[in-house]
Amino acid sequence: MRHHASVASAARRRTGLAALGMILGLVMIPALPGEPSSDTSTRWNSFSESSTCGAPFARTPFASKSGGLSAAESVLGPFGTYFGRTIGQVRANLVPWVVPGSGGRVVSVHRLALPAFRRVSAGLAAQAAQGNTYTVSSMSAFTSRTIAGSTQISRHGLGLAIDINPPQNPQRDDNRLITNMPGWYVDVWRAAGFCWGGDWAFSKDPMHFSWIGPGSGPEAPLTPLPPVTSKRPFGSAAATYRTEFTSVTDRYRLTIADVTGKGAPDVAGVRAHPGGTVIDVASGTMLFGQCSVNRWFLPDPSIAGSHRILFMDLDADSGQDLVAFSTGSTVTATVATRVSGFEDISSLSTGIDPNHVALAGADLDGDRKADVWEAGPGGALRVLEGPGLNTVLRGATLPGGAPVHIAAGDRDGGTTPELFALYPDSSGSRIDVLNLQGGGLTLHQSFDVEIPATEVRGLGAADYDGDGRADVEVFSESGSLVVHLGNTPTGAPATRWFARPDQSCDDPLPLAFNGPFFDDDDSVFQEAIERLGTSGITRGCNPPFNDAFCPEDAVTRGQMAAFLVRALGYADDGGSDQFTDDNGHVFEAAIGRLATAGVTLGCNPPANTKFCPDRPVTRGQMAAFLVRALGYTNDGGGNHFSDDNRSVFESAIDRLATAGVTLGCNPPANTKFCPDEPVTRGQMAAFLTRALDL
User: Fold this and answer.
1) pLDDT per position as a tens digit, 153-211
2) CB under 8 Å to 101, separation ≥6 — which residues?
3) Which strand (E) or helix (H) includes residue 624?
4) CA distance to 59, 263, 488, per residue, from 255 (Å)
5) Quick check: 245 and 27 in contact, CB under 8 A?
């Protein structure tokens, strides 16, 4: 899935999986002078192939080519950090595993995943003792290759996955599940810590099982391999990106974090919405551009109004949870977990100093849960243990005093994250790179950034080039992301491992646009649509975001009812169920009110016991709706159009034309009305704005 979005406690949607942009009635959030942001230094605990498997999705890196991969092929990013920096190193870590039910056949798996495979063996042995068996006639485990048709490295190429009986359990892109695996068999694999392809949300691959990671079992945390590169001083910018947040940064709380689960930086913004809070993420996978945006909706409006926002892994599943800090006499944290699509929301009282000047999130104590690094007045530094954020793990004093922003990330490839502190400087900004050891901070390096400190909106310490060392990302008020590297080159293009080779998309969704809707700029009906949106008669077509209007979509009879009820203020529903086919429909209340007002009679005359709420409205039907609703009686002598003489709605059409509500369907002549064609939402906007004189 290229884009996705989530709606907390509501429907999950993006236009083409999620729609983007500003919303009617948006509360504007000014930038905070000391607003911090940072990527978290994550002890990777989960490598789940799907968020439906109980842990956040983690994307494998891209390779230099598609198909079979040589031993020299680099494996960059978090998967390389733990399983092998090259395919050759992965091969060197393979061990044999006898596939239960296969008659003793052996496959190769990664040694780090072997304990989970052994749990499968034990679980299936226990089932066999109860008389439950499943015969494995064909299988495939380690194969040094990419995913078919892609340059993305397959989990098979890392020794983390196995396919069982492909002919009986085919992969299907239509999301249809076909499998001969018994439920108990799949449950054994799930319990052992594997993600089953039959549980995937948007396609099905029931032959496929992949290890989720140590967070799914009793294994100890994985030990990172040495970085690919050598350290060297940070210098001038290695890359600069103009992100989708350009020109709209003042509407967001902004941060830099790996929200999408690939190990590299994303730019995340949190903004207010009339019904709650929206998270917009410009993903590094699509290089932060017009095809990059992912979106989630949270029904809690207080999150957007929080003083500070971080994304950090508080529950040890490698997913970056949203943590919003509200400051009063104490600091309260609202937490929305990443694994739930930010739907699981809770709050906690913290020991963070209400007078803090900057915050960052990173795991200091090695428990795989992020801790909060707090910079206070005068440069006091405290690290508070996650997830409770009350116990102080370490304290020190920043030699440069109180910073504007801080970030924390593992630059040395060790166990303790380094701290990056940004200060005002004569050249723009200065970043100090510090190591927290014992009770003190050691200054490793200071380097200049051309962006003035007052224009910096976010500071990150994510691994940009995939070498296993934290790099530095600075996000500016202008919406640009600037990357600084502190290491020797990896030998591969810096973004190859996380950026998709194809950066195009069919449905780019801008964050910056005029008016309440992002998709009407090229519509001939734009003015009418925006008047309708501003008046509150339409709420959009993509709830709960409702920043798209879908002007070319056909209007349904249910939508028509909602339009007219909002426009004319009908409140009386008659106290009874008017129709038999709208029970539980989202527009049931509007339909009842429209019927009580006498505007609709039904869709199955003469009984008229049904309304047909999902049936498209024709232009002729629309004329009848409006004539009844607005009481038009003058037909101007009739026969306004040449193509409605046999239409049951001819009289209503003539009255609508006489009132100036319709001009016809074949401009500029406009000699036809096209009574049997469906009404588009854009056309409906024009009809209503003329009829209501908006």
Assistant:
1) 999 999 999 999 999 999 999 999 999 999 999 999 999 999 999 999 999 999 999 99
2) 124, 133, 134, 135, 136
3) helix 619-630
4) 21, 15, 27
5) no
